[in-house]
Amino acid sequence: MKEKRSHKMTSTPPTMGFLKSAEVSVLLMSILLCIYSNLASSNLDCMECRLEKNSIFSREGKPVYQCIGCCFSRAYPTPLQAMQTMAVPKNITSEATCCVAKHSHQFLFQTIEHTIPVRNHTECHCSTCQYHKI
To answer: Where does this protein have coiled-coil stretches (predicted)?
Structure first.
């Protein structure tokens, strides 16, 4: 009897191992690029702590200035010795400072329906964030 070969039968091509390796490399590069772009954009999105004119509350002849920008912030693993003294242990410890006003003056901003208290800042610096203070 004569042996019949089918065109549908294929064997694994020798390039299969190379393709898997290339896929892993592309995936790894994508992950690294994503992490790098997030780190780079987080540094670019926020400028240094400074005083800036608030266009919403400013009126002609009565400018309103408020603090805007970023300050120091970091997170790190909580040291074991510190974690043992915590009432509620947390794996991550964070430190942060916020852009806050050294001095400010409050005034009342009148709208058609409401009176809104607004603070006009005179100078800014990096200090303890207000929501962290007790």
So the answer is: none
